[in-house]
């Protein structure tokens, strides 16, 4: 007989509802904070997000465009590990070099011919190049207006650059706001920033500042570069993890359908020794034992969920898995106990099968600090797939990392398995991330306000969550009327159309 047989069924997220609490003036929806911790940092502190949404480490979900757009809205996308190490590290670099404020410049030496500068511009896709000497000291600046490739081809960069003494330059340390003030008073579109020895450190572009002001939730590192997250696996981590760290990744998650495994402990031990400053999230687990195992192994956060993903057939194939609601409840209780005992608060990420804003708020109320979403983000413009028309509907392909399509890449999450754990299909195209996330966050804030919670810590402390019956779920939907077609205009999406 099995060691233990639990006869209480495990619960899906959809079986819970949040009871209303007292809504206070300080907790009205637009005052609700969605800021959260994603992982603890080895040196203390935490990787913080401004919204509790992260995109799943999947080929059909998280590429560079998703990584940039989600970080600009306050979350992060975990770049998928089912690709060669160098390709994934390059994705990290592209997110880190995105012009989110301070940009690490591509410099040129003063004697480089303009023809070569033009080649570089064509290859890199931008045209501004600071000119520096062999010690990295700023000599001048070449912008798009300073050279014409055909006319100036043979001239060296120094002959076309705006020389240093005619440039307005910022000196470290400098905030983005101070850089902005300097730029506004200059006649330049770009501000070079130098250190105390006049060595060039960053560039700040005028157009990026406006952009930045339009994205108040943007999550950035100490150098104001967007946060980048990536997945690793338990096979090639010795090569992958250092390459990602070198590229500047801020947080890493071990991508596995079963994280209660000695291989994860080995991966975490390697990470501590090879990349001691990099937070590594473990998972996925669905039990208190799994949580304690990863906490003891040094995980910076823990991902919960097994068998619930929209493309997942793990439960059907292997008979392993657990309802996500029950999994979060049990793991959150273990996390809180770990917190009391050790003083360390390990963030929890609920992953797999979360479809709507109401699922997200329930997962958060049950104890998660963030939710990881695949299908949700796969529908957006920024996912790496191409739109297709099927039966007059605009769709995007979406497939599991354990589907035959993703497993073609040998090192993937399920690369070693000889059978499929995921399927391939389509999701309806939903437009840009910006609009969809704005609506989801509005619903999240409204739910939290109804529950009387000003922030996620209060939601964890104060939420009252109840299991509901199937009839009660039916009662909570539109029923017993002839629904008059999809609503249009304001609120249409909130009704699920
Ligand atoms: P979704 O948000 O319901 O689409 O679920 C996404 C999650 O499913 C991912 O974050 C993974 O944890 C999980 N997942 C991804 N690919 C597979 C697969 O092929 N089989 C099982 N689970 C998967």
What is this entry, summarized?
By secondary structure, the protein is an alpha/beta fold.
CA(first)-CA(last) distance? 48 Å
Counting DSSP H or I runs of 4 or more residues, the number of helices is 18
Contiguous low-pLDDT stretches (5 residues minimum) are none
Radius of gyration: 25 Å
CATH fold node name of the largest domain: TIM Barrel
Strand order of the largest sheet: 4-5-13-14-15-16-17-18
Structural class: alpha/beta
Into how many domains do the coordinates divide?
2
CATH class placement of the largest domain: Alpha Beta
Describe it:
The protein is of the alpha/beta class. It has two domains: 13-99 and 218-494, Alpha-Beta Barrel (TIM Barrel); 114-209, CBS-domain. Helix content is 33%, strand content 18%. It contains 18 helices and 22 strands. It has helices at residues 64-72, 85-96, 114-124, 149-152, 157-160, 176-185, 206-213, 237-247, 262-274, 288-296, 314-318, 324-342, 357-366, 375-378, 404-407, 433-450, 456-462, 470-475, and strands spanning 16-18, 36-40, 46-49, 53-55, 76-79, 102-103, 129-132, 138-142, 162-163, 170-171, 190-194, 200-205, 229-232, 251-254, 280-285, 302-304, 348-351, 370-373, 388-390, 393-399, 424-428, 465-467. The strands form six sheets. The chain has an eight-stranded parallel beta barrel, surrounded by seven helices. Strands 6-12-11-10 form a four-stranded mixed sheet. A three-stranded antiparallel sheet has the order 7-8-9. α1 (64-72) packs parallel to α2 and α13 (357-366) crosses α16 (433-450). The longest helix is centred in the last third of the chain and has 19 residues, at 324-342. It is globular, with a radius of gyration of 25 Å. The chain starts with 15 loop residues before the first strand and ends in a 22-residue tail after the last helix. Bound molecules: inosinic acid (IMP). The site of inosinic acid (IMP) has 25 residues, from β18 and α14.
